[in-house]
Amino acid sequence: MNSQTPIHATDVIRHKRDGLSLTTEEIQHFIRGVADQSNPGAPTDAQIAALLMAIFLRGLNPQELADLTSAMRFSGEVFDAAPLHTFTIDKHSTGGVGDKTSLLITPILAAAGLAHPTPAGIPGICVPMISGRSLGHTGGTLDKLETIPGFNTQLSLQQFFDTLKSCGASLIGQTPTLVPADRLLYALRDHTATVESPFLITASIMSKKLAESLNALVLDVKTGSGAFMKSYDDSKHLANLMVQTGTLAGTRTVALLTAMDQPLGRFSGNWVEVWECVDIMQGTRHPMSADLIELTNILSGWMLHLAGQSDTPEAGAILSNEILRSGAAYKAWLKIVAAHNGDISVFEKPAAFHKPFTTRVLNAPTAGYLASMDCTEVGWAVQRMGAGRLKPGGPVSAHAGLEMHSKLGEKIEAGQPLITLFSENESLLAEPYEMLLNTLKITPTPPAPQPLVREVITASA
Ligand code: URA
Asked: Of 62, 155, 213, 311, which is most buried by a Cβ count within 10 Å?
């Protein structure tokens, strides 16, 4: 196309509707208009929704997906880590129940970076993590962090930069100026039944991650009953698209397909998840936290490997575990929390800070083996106890949530406690109790064991 030829939104929609490939210029022009609605040629909401549906139905080829992601990434301000002259790396999870690995991975990587500073004295590895809030049945890192009194997740990009420089990691929410195109596209997707497109999910997630100016990215793509993508094939397709898009953008990207068939670790909720991580960093390893620690070390292991700190991801996982056990991760955690204005005195007695007001124990109705559960239903039960929002922008309860006393495959005696439910409001316990009771399946024979990591997707694979 001649660069002088005007681009009309209706032509872009028609091309995608008819199965043609969109050009880089068409995608850039359209997304520029999405981000700047004051522009006279900007597409209307109806036109944006029509293009979203055309993409949902027709998909995008690798070049179109790279172009869409790039146009969204540069639709506003981007974070520039180049002046730090460090190795920037992040982890992103597609969302799960009890998934708190970010709270452990950031201090582990920060500790590794603080131990290997650059010639300018800056941590040799930095994790610029821009996180989200609770979405659907899944928890959000920002909601968990904000249960720490004073913790500020709304740093400016300059404060974010300064925190990375001193601590090696910082965790913040999306700013109004970062990837503004995603905000409008996401809101319209929510109203037009186009959220579930793997192409639109990839562009949405990767545009925000790539705006962090990353050298490398590790993706934890969940699969199973508690994942957004329920089928293994769908999860794998999404993982492949994200790895291909990150790689085309020049960021080394690896995806791990991991099981989300039960809550990860001991607790699900907000403060209780911080408490679980603090326990681990202080050296207490509760048996129910074993899967959380294993996944944390595997993901951190990949990150340490990509950052050049270990020859293999497996050696990286061993290093990660050493960083946890030595107390170095806990030291880095205290530094990060203090830099975000958080009150670190609550970590002296994290159990004492947990004030649910009301608890209820769900006991096993029969003996047998804990065989399965609909983990999405478990996530909704946690949300309805108060850990989630009733409406967008509403408050979340710091102390609502649950504690698992058994994991899938374990032998159960009749009457044995399976789950303790916590809420700040007695009336919020009855419905989640029934949801949990109905979804836990106990069978006479043990289920087949499932690995935590199902597959690793790399650009070369
Ligand atoms: N998270 C995002 O940021 N975008 C999506 O489309 C889905 C999950």
From this structure: 155
Q: How many angstroms is it from 200 CA to the middle of ligand 1?
A: 8
Query: Which range marks the domain in which residue 193 is found?
Result: 82-349
- SS3 category, 135: strand
Whether 205 lines ligand 1, by a CB cut-off of 6 Å, is yes
Say if residue 404 is in the same domain as residue 359. Answer: yes
**Residue 292's closest CA among 108, 90, 89?**
108
- Size of the chain in residues: 461
Residue 310's pLDDT is what?
A: 98
* Catalytic residue list contains 17: no
DSSP secondary structure letter of residue 385: I
- Catalytic choice (67, 182, 220, 279): 182
Is the distance from CB of 87 to CB of 214 less than 8 angstroms? Answer: no
Report the interhelical angle of 375-382 vs 430-439 (nearest 10°): 170
What pLDDT sits at residue 461? 62
CA of 201 from ligand 1 middle (Å) equals: 5
Where is 339: in which H helix or E strand? helix 328-339
What are the residues facing 358 on neighbouring strands? Answer: 423
Residues in the chain with pLDDT values less than 70: 1-4, 461
Within 10 angstroms of residue 436's Cβ, the number of other Cβ atoms is 20
Select from 317, 349, 381 the last residue of a domain.
349
Query: CATH no. for residue 380?
Result: 3.90.1170.30
Nearest to 318 by CA among 341, 336, 335, 300: 300
Structure tokens at 122: 């800056």
Query: Residues 6 or more apart from 452 whose CB is under 8 A from it?
Result: 258, 259, 291, 294, 295, 298
pTM over 0.85? The answer is: yes
Task: Provide the pLDDT for residue 4.
Answer: 66
pLDDT of res. 62: 95
The CATH number of whichever domain residue 123 belongs to comes to 3.40.1030.10
Same domain, 180 and 52: no
189 is catalytic: yes
